Amino acid sequence: MGIPDRHQADEALREANERVQLALNAEAMIGTWVWDVPGNRVVADERFAHSFSLDPARAREGLPLSQFVAAIHPEDRPGVEGRIARVLETGGAYRAEYRVRRADGEYRWVEASGHCHLSAGGAPLRFPGVLVDIDARKRAELRQTALLEMADRLREAPSPDAAAQLAMEVVGRLLDVARAGYGTVDAAHARVLMHPNWVASPDVARVEGVHRFHDYGVFLEDLLKGEVVAIPDVRTDPRTAPHADTLEQVGIRALFNIPLLEHGRFVAVLFLHDVQPRTWTAEELELTRNVADRVWATLSRLKAVSDLKQANETLEQRVAQRTRERDRVWNVSQDLLVVGSLSEGRFLSVNPAWTRMLGWTEEELLGRTSEWLERPEDYARTRDEVSRLAGGQPTLNFESAYRCKHGGYRRIAWTAVPVPEDGVLYASGRDVTEQRQTEEQLRQAQKLEAVGKLTGGVAHDFNNLLQVVGGNLQLLQRDVAGNERGLSRVRSALSAVERGARLSGQLLAFSRRQPLEPRSLSLGRLVRGMDDLLRRALGEDVEVETVIGGGLWNTLADPHQLENVILNLAINARDAMRGAGKLTLELSNASLDDHYAQAHPEVMAGAYVLLAVSDTGGGMTQEVLERAFEPFFTTKPEGRGTGLGLSMVYGFVKQSGGHVKLYSELGHGTTVKVYLPRAFQPEAPVTEVVVGPVEGGKETILAVEDDAEVRATVVEMLTELGYRVLRAVDGQSALSILKSGVAVDLLFTDVVMPGPVRSPELARQAKALQPDIEVLFTSGYTENAIVHGGRLDPGVSLLSKPYRREDLARKLRALLDPRQQRMATPKLQWPERAVEPPAATQEAARRMHVLLVEDDEDIRASASELLGLLGHAVMPVSSAEEARVALAAERFDVLFTDVTLPGMSGVDLAREVALRRPAMRIIIASGHGRAALDGDPQQWLGVVVLPKPYALPQIQQALAQVAATAR
To answer: Which among 153, 157, 148, 150 has a CA at the least distance from the CA of 303?
Structure first.
């Protein structure tokens, strides 16, 4: 070889050495080796030795091949050994990919490339090669391969559980973990259901079934937010350190959880567990996220397929079920259902409710329109509504009256929708007949209530005016005595005042604000007593027949007002019969049941006494019937009636707790049925009407009236009757007069007065200041001061405005004459007894043991103090029940009880004591006198009633009375 050739060879060798050095310095190149096959000595550079965790110095000197092979991953080792054996036989190129263990214990992928040189005889001599780091590329390839494999297997998965288990097996093997699995989450209760999971070896426990998140750490909040939980070591992470022992017991030292979210909700979790601490890399995180997405997509697809399959399998069944449900609704619906034609409104299909509600069969309805069922005016509205439906507008609120097969009409509220493409409409009709009747009754009641409030407000001032006019006319009547012309005018004016008073009374009766004094009475006896009065009022051409049923119950009503009602009804009947015909009064017992009460909401079910007044007149039209009870409504000619007769009847009956019903038919007459509540008490005695000459008196009367003109008239009338009259403009002024010490025999006060002291309070304080005073109220409108529940309060005397001089005089004497007799009667004295002198009796009375029963704390304390001042031993209690306990424990001489107590009443307690302890004396304190004692009067003999309010003298007198009474 010449010098130029040698120079070229050296240059080529230098360039080759540079390329080799560059390759060796490249990051991908790990090192080189040369294997002396016959000597079994492998010489490797330093980097190669480090890759196989060998000593570099020894590697440079040469090591047996077995030491290099020992560092290869056990799974890859058989393949590498097989390739080496084949190359040794054939020679030539060698290439292999495998994992090799490094000094840190981790395995990395490498690629070994070399060439085996053979001898002339074919024996292997020399085997050089290089080692390249392919870990990143190889792992990426393996991940991609694993994902492809997993995708293929997921497509074939038969169920969500199988899909999840297949996917996690692929991930588990790829990432070389101990356990991998899937769980569905109950986030509300912090629980997870672990499905069958994959484990790397049989000695790794499975964690299946229901588990609580809090048993394994406090990372649920992270998962709920969709965050991955990667914990390298459960002992060092603060989220799991408190539960590390529990976790390690099931083979968890490192864990990796990826949440699966559906519409933002945490519904499932993929988990990886390892038995050793482990750092989770970003590549592993990315791989697991990819797997999670694919698993969730597969699970969603499988669920959709399952749902679709189930839907397909049950479609026919569900269609049949829906058909049965539709048919069931169609058949059992209480509403009218109809399918009709949009063009003509003919019935194409109807449900059975038509027969139940209206009586018409399907055969009678199909093919026809509603024209023959509705009134003409309603059918015209129906046609317009069908036209609107044909235009595509639904019906939401439409009502029409439909004729029933057996008579009458039902009001139907319709809703309907059109289906233009099919040319039909679907409609539903609800029966609102009773609802509309109730609404009409409510409107009528509200209207009557409004008119009632108006009349009540007007009545007070109107009656005051009538009182002024009437009072002055009566006074004037005496001044013009002897002047016949003047007397005639005065009498005419007084007659007008009386008519005005009747009109005002009728208005108050209608408004249910007249003061009634109901009592138990026999309606049959009352009607028989009116026989002559009715015959005189009706005339000879009206035949009167009275039919009274046997065993007629008593009723509770004001007898005087009830007579007015019967007379009003009789006169109305006479006018309806034009003065000739037959009037029938029928009295019987009646019971109104719950069904009737539901149809008439203002009626209470129960027992009633029925008064039916029937005539043979011309009857009423429907329009007249609907307005018959309205005030001032009348069909009589102008000047022949006020239109308040039936209104007064209506108001009185309602105020009495009864019910009134009108029945009428044109050409056949009218019947008014009045139901009055049954009374279970015996008939009360009839109070005789005072007649005879008008008498005055010399007593002192305190007249309280805020209207100056009325006050002046009243004072003059009282003065003319001979009384000494004191006057006051309001309750406060009257109270000042009473407190001044002036003796007053009777307090005559208006009910409605201005100022802080109302008339009932004035009367109460007057009785407290002067116990023997009488009280007479007067008013043209009582409000609720002395009338409650439509009834005059017990023990209250009332003279309604306007009143005549004669009425005033007789009412005063009715109160003052008994007072005179009472005042003239000597007080009860201590009786003299043969066995004990009076002084001893008084001494015994002072030492009595008294059981005081009073629920008002102030009254109880005051009475206890007064009894103590009289020298008696007192045990105060607040109820009859406490009194019973005290009676069982101790002996008492006197029971001193109030009438009104919480729980058992004082009257019932006194009755019980009288039966069980006959020797015990009884005092009953009452604001209503002996009227508070019900039942047989004989059982109350010896019982002393102490009127309220009482003071020390009244208590002393009551004790003296009970001490003098032998029990």
So the answer is: 157
